C-alpha cells in the first residue's frame, strides 16, 4: 500500500518552475556544454519503481537516449525524445548557465520567441567534463527533496 501511495504522489509530480534564474552568465561552463549530447541515464532513488514526469513532457526514462544540441554563443539549441515506446517530441530550446551553477531552460514551440514563454526549468549543473556533465533537478518525494540526475554524454 505504501508503494501505491508513493507511486501515486510521484506520478502526478511535475517539475515546477523555479525562481532562481539570476542572469549573470557562467560563460566557461556554457562553452564546455557547447555541442551535441545524448542523455545516457536518468537516476533518482526509487527510479526502478517510481515514475517521474520530466519537463512536463514524458516519463523520465523516456529521456534516456534523447538528443540535445547546445549553442553557447546565442544560448539556443534543440532537444528530441527518440526512445521507442515513448512519445516522439522535438523542440527548439533557449538556455543559459548562471553564476550560481544553475541551468535555466525554456522549451519553445516552433517560431515562438523565448520572451513569450512564461514557464521554464532550473536545474543544477554538476560534474562538467570534456565529454560529460550532469543536470540535477530536485523533486518532492513524500515530503523529502530528492535529486533527479540526468547524465549527459557527448555525441559522436
TrEMBL record:
Signal sequence coordinates: 1-18
Keywords for the protein's UniProt record, in alphabetical order: Signal
Species: Flavobacterium orientale
Organism superkingdom: Bacteria
Keyword Signal part of the UniProt annotation: yes
Protein name according to UniProt: Lipocalin-like domain-containing protein
Amino acid at each position: 500500500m505504501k508503494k501505491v501511495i508513493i507511486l501515486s504522489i510521484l506520478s502526478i509530480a511535475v517539475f515546477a518552475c523555479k525562481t532562481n534564474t539570476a542572469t549573470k552568465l557562467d560563460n566557461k561552463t556554457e562553452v564546455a556544454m557547447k555541442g551535441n549530447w545524448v542523455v545516457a541515464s536518468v537516476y533518482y532513488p526509487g527510479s526502478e519503481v517510481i515514475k517521474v514526469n520530466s519537463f512536463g513532457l514524458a516519463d523520465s526514462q523516456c529521456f534516456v537516449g534523447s538528443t540535445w544540441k547546445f549553442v553557447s554563443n546565442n544560448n539556443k539549441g534543440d532537444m528530441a525524445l527518440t526512445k521507442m515506446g515513448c512519445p516522439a517530441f522535438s523542440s527548439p530550446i533557449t538556455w543559459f548557465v548562471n553564476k550560481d551553477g544553475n541551468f535555466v531552460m525554456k522549451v519553445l514551440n516552433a517560431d515562438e520567441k523565448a520572451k513569450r514563454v512564461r514557464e521554464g526549468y532550473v536545474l543544477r549543473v554538476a560534474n562538467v567534463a570534456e565529454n560529460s556533465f550532469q543536470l540535477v533537478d530536485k523533486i518532492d518525494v513524500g515530503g523529502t527533496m530528492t535529486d533527479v540526475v540526468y547524465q549527459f554524454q557527448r555525441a559522436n
